[in-house]
Amino acid sequence: MIRNILITGAGGYIGGSVATKFATQKDGPIKNTKIYAAVRSKDQTKSASIPGLAVLQLDCGDYEAVKDVVLNNHIDMVIHTASSMVASYSQNLLEALGERRKQSGQETGVLTAFTDMGGWRYGQCKDSDAEIFTKEKGIGDVHPTDILIVEQSKALGVKSFILPAPYVYGRGTGDWRKLSVSIPQYIRTSMRLKQVYKFPEDAAPAATHISDLVSLYKLLATKILLGQTPPANENGYYFPFAHRIPWYKTMDLLAKAMHSRGLVNQPHVEIWPSYEKAADEYGFPRQFIRAMGASSGDIVAEKPFELGWKPQWDEKKYLENIDQEVQDFLELDSGKASIFDALTT
């Protein structure tokens, strides 16, 4: 029976929100588990305020440290939201869980989030596609982390579940970071330039409110705890995509909301002269800026809904909440968050 759950990246936006939800759960099997939250800094361990949450400092790049945490705390499930683009972090967690499985004789598992479906060349991508893993392997080195997760999980007897995070928005509930990455960075840059800009091309990427993403993690964990383990490993892809967000409409609403507060000079949006200029102003990598700002992708989520996932946010509610996104930014922004922070939390 799974009794102890480790959540990595708990000092970040997604991991912190998941940790808070799990530690404060009042019903269901999660309330009977011990929740461990892994953060990067000692200061974060001292400032934790969520009752029932065991916060510990952990460098996921240090295998011996990871193994000690997993074995000494009898961890049977890991929710990995930290530095998902760093394959060695996932590898260390999987190997430690493999050791834990030998020690306990019971199943262990990882729920992991990763970003960017870049390089996909097979048209529409459904999480229910039985060949999705084989197709990913055919891309080459574009998705090394999730390929490693699937192959190593099978080799170690660990069950893995992959949740590729879309654009996530809304006010988080973690102790440390409550803001997402992209929209706050657009607001921050617009304030500095006194003007809201949009990319030369419109896009409508998949998106999910933070509360809905957390609810999917809860749903998967609950089913696993109840012994109703959903398909895992090469069949363990679950796309947490609730709706799409139209970027041009988003930027138009941002401009109006910011202008009404005196944060920009006009309520109208200008177009960036180039993607390179946009990348430099936002502080995003030039090689990824077009994919980040003008890519929609024909990605279809089916399996979360088959599990019973019921997102509460849709496109209409998202657009109606843009003014609140600006207000949340003004209340919560530390001025330190960046795309690089998000990838290394």
Query: Uncertain runs with pLDDT below 50, 5 residues or more?
Result: 114-122, 338-345
What is the molecular shape? globular
- Which range does the strand content fall in? 5-15%
What is the rounded Rg?
20 Å
Largest sheet: 6 strands, parallel
- Oligomer state equals single chain
Give a count of the beta strands, DSSP E runs of length 2 or more.
13
Mean pLDDT: 88
Instruction: Name the CATH superfamily classification of the largest domain.
Output: NAD(P)-binding Rossmann-like Domain
Distance between the termini: 30 Å
Can you tell me the CATH topology of the largest domain?
Rossmann fold
User: CATH first level of the largest domain: which class?
Assistant: Alpha Beta
CATH architecture of the largest domain: 3-Layer(aba) Sandwich
H/E element order: EHEHEHEHEEHHEEHEEHEHEHHEHHHH
From the helix content, strand content and strand pairing, which structural class follows?
alpha/beta
Number of helices: 15
Helical residues, percent: 40-55%
As for the number of domains, it is 2
Protein name: NAD-dependent epimerase/dehydratase domain-containing protein
Domain NAD-dependent epimerase/dehydratase: 5-87
Pfam families: Epimerase (PF01370)
InterPro entries: Epimerase_deHydtase, NAD(P)-bd_dom_sf, NAD(P)-dependent_oxidoreduct
